[in-house]
């Protein structure tokens, strides 16, 4: 069984295109859609989180909001263009900017705290992994450097199929569940697999050698999950 991995942002883009097409077909492009506003706002939130985590800097909260909005609008324009749908997004963008002013301020403060924590190497690290299957992932160490609570692998790049049967074929592994989130038992570790293709394993209270072993197993799970995708 292979299951198509679709990121939440991809689902939001698809929803915006479908709602915009419906307005176009009804010849009612000027009608305001709360659904489009909500989906666009969630896209902007997602971009703000990404910027705050991956590009932390000391710019102001308005800057992080503007940067995130510009990126989200670019994605939407490209998605609409591919489907040959035409709709004015400026009225939605204005509302979203006003709606997200305070969340942007809070997120910027968290980003500033993250900059400081990384400067003193207080947080866990993250690294990009190119797995044998060809998929690229970001491996996050969750928690403080002295007390890593878990490892989270997040695939990046294009949408890929999740090869669930490939996990079941491993004789020494046991997959539990009929749908997401699946639990995969490998040795003494439980790997949680979500529908966005992410894989989490807890490392709380484990000695260093077992944490390293969990990381090695996580890479094997990712390779198997995306094999033949």
Helix and strand layout, with pairings?
Layout: E1 2-4, H1 8-25, H2 34-54, H3 61-82, H4 90-99, H5 101-119, E2 126-130, E3 136-144, E4 147-156, E5 161-163, H6 164-168, E6 173-176, E7 182-186, E8 189-193, E9 199-202, H7 208-225
Antiparallel strand pairs: 1-5, 2-3, 3-4, 4-9, 6-7, 7-8, 8-9
Helix pairs in contact: 1-2, 1-3, 2-3, 2-4, 2-5, 3-5
Helix content: 40-55%
Strand content: 15-25%
**SSE pattern:** EHHHHHEEEEHEEEEH
Number of helices: 7
What is the mean pLDDT? 83
Number of structural units classed as domains: 2
- Count of distinct strands: 9
What is the radius of gyration computed over CA atoms, rounded to a whole number of angstroms? 20 Å
**Structural class, judged by helices and strands?**
alpha+beta
- Please report the distance between the alpha carbons of the first and last residues: 11 Å
Give a quick account of the main beta sheet: strands, pairing sense, barrel closure: 7 strands, antiparallel
Globular, elongated, flat, extended or rod-shaped: what is the shape?
Answer: globular
Q: How are strands sequenced across the largest beta sheet? A: 2-3-4-9-8-7-6
Low-confidence region ranges: none
Quaternary state reads single chain
């Amino acid at each position: 069984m292979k299951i198509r991995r679709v990121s939440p942002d991809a689902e939001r883009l698809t929803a915006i295109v479908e709602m915009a097409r419906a307005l176009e077909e009804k010849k009612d492009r000027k009608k305001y859609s709360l659904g489009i506003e909500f989906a666009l706002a969630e896209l902007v939130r997602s971009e703000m989180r990404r910027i705050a985590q991956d590009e932390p800097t000391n710019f102001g909260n308005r800057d992080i909001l503007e940067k995130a909005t510009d990126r989200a609008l670019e994605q939407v324009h490209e998605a609409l263009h591919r489907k040959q749908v035409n709709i004015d997004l400026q009225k939605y963008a204005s509302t979203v900017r006003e709606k997200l002013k305070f969340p942007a301020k809070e997120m910027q403060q968290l980003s500033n705290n993250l900059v400081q924590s990384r400067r003193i190497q207080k947080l866990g690290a993250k690294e990009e992994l190119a797995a044998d299957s060809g998929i690229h992932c970001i491996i996050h160490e969750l928690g403080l450097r002295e007390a890593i609570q878990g490892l989270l692998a997040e695939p990046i790049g294009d949408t890929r199929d999740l090869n669930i049967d490939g996990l079941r074929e491993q004789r020494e592994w046991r997959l539990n569940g009929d749908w997401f989130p699946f639990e995969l038992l490998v040795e003494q570790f439980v790997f949680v697999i979500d529908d966005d293709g992410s894989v989490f394993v807890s490392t709380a209270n484990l000695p260093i050698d077992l944490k390293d072993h969990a990381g090695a197993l996580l890479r094997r799970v990712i390779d198997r999950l995306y094999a033949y995708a």
